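Annual report, structural modelling task.

Input specification for the S-adenosylmethionine complex:
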Amino acid sequence: MAERSSGGAAGAGAGGGAARAPRGRVDPSRQVAFDVLRAVAQSDAYANLVLPGLLADRGLTGRDAGFATELAYGTLRLRGRYDAILAMCSTRSLSSVDPGVLDALRLGVHQVLGMRVAQHAAVSETVDLVRANVGQGAASFANAVMRQVTRADAAEWERRMAERTSDATELLGQRLAHPAWIVRAMRESLALDPGTPSGGLDAELVGLLEADNAAPAVTLVARPGLVSEQELERAETEGLIAPAGLAPTAWRLAGGSPDTIGAVRSGRMGVQDEGSQLVALALAAVTVTGRDAVWADLCAGPGGKSALLGAVLAQRTDELAADGVLQQGSRLVAGELQEHRVGLVRRSVKALPEELVDVVQWDGRTVGSQEPGTYDRILVDAPCTGLGALRRRPEARWRRTPADLKPLALLQRELLDSAIEATRTGGVVGYVTCSPHVAETRAVIDAVLRSRADVEVLDAAAAVSAVATDEVVGLEGPYAQLWPHRHGTDAMFLALLRRL
Ligand SMILES: C[S@@+](CC[C@H](N)C(=O)[O-])C[C@H]1O[C@@H](n2cnc3c(N)ncnc32)[C@H](O)[C@@H]1O
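The model returned the following structure:
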């Protein structure tokens, strides 16, 4: 977790604690973290979209920016745990506490229990934050609550949580900061995964929830055929990137901003989770007989997988041409429902040959009826709850509800059905979600399989293993389910279906 040294106007230091900001003057890093939490609560904002702008506006860089980032993201991720602790420290129910005060208190608890900030600094900075943003009366209340928080360490707070909760799932959810319904969903999905070791379900579940709480490394994709070995070696030598574990295209950002790398600025590389790379590469690699030139990405926005698929298709077309096989009309149609996301797709594929990629606005549900039997490969990277990417979206777990599942599952089924219709006999559909929730993964495939006899399930686990550069542990078919705690990727799900 981010640690902060003493000094500078930003105040509160690590461990022993530096001088805090003068009374009434709020530490700018803490103010940024507070503003992020408020934007998330008040405007449904995404922390990862709001934070960079706030850091730039306030001129925060280096350690101060790192501190603000860890404070905001860590607090958002662990909010449920901190609320359970605050409920034990407050004389008032949390629902009656001013939302701004509650956010400041959550930040305070994270400093005490989740970061190595000295207790007295965490208390006084929280009080200053509340005084400046809410008022003196609320500051006295915040002071009293924070003093209670500092009277026990993390282990003691866990013991007290256990005393108050008899439900094991609730307790695990409080301890590891996940809503109970998500804990149950993850347990169900892990239990159905043939890669989960027998007798190891509880340990796997804890490992997964813990992995969701850790900040992930930034992973880059080097789009095949667009970045030379020499360029990658140079970036590695300069300490900008390091090889990642599993996908042949994946590199870990070694530090700094991705935009410092020229290939990222020009669209030949991009930021993309390694799991996303593996599922796209697996779809591109599975055998199809006959023509293999017309591909579609049914739900393309913001375009990460389109750019990877397009690069593979371009490279394959060039290789065939070099072998004297002219593949006429290679193209990838990248379609997306929302206009602004169509623009993001265009930006994402900017380094690919213009004639190869056709970026269109469409409703993927109608493509099957409008273009039946047209495509050799189709990716359905379906809109989903995103429960597999909780590491990257710190607030998502508290925003999502079980009520989101039913409409999403219906949409997912319609999109998959449409994709199968739009695929030619012998072609392949890749169904992908960045959620391991069974309702969005196996249940969608099962429902589609029940309703039609013209598809065959291929071994997606074998397809992922075949493109990976190292063993993908615990991957057993027919579906491929990746996990943050096993593979260091988002929890991507892939099913491969051949149209008969
Ligand atoms: C999970 S995201 C796709 C991510 C993308 N494949 C990537 O790798 O960058 C799902 C996308 O589907 C889009 N979408 C939602 N409903 C759709 C529909 N009916 N037709 C096409 N796209 C849709 C959403 O706007 C969203 O951009």
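The longest helix spans residues 304-322.
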